[in-house]
Hints:
3 helices
Amino acid sequence: MDKNVLRSIASVEIYPIISFVIFFLFFLGLLAYVFVVNRQHVHAMKNLPLLGGEDETSSTTFTPNLPC
């Protein structure tokens, strides 16, 4: 029954292709981000849970240069 319902939809074969392209582009973008990310930013984010009770001004903080 499900096959007959899907066959009745016009151009249904494009949906799996679109979903695969979105999936592939997302992980390709994630992989590119991992190689491009600033290592200082990663180090600062890694240490955030350990800074719980300290005054934020006494620790070394990283301010990223974000585009406006």
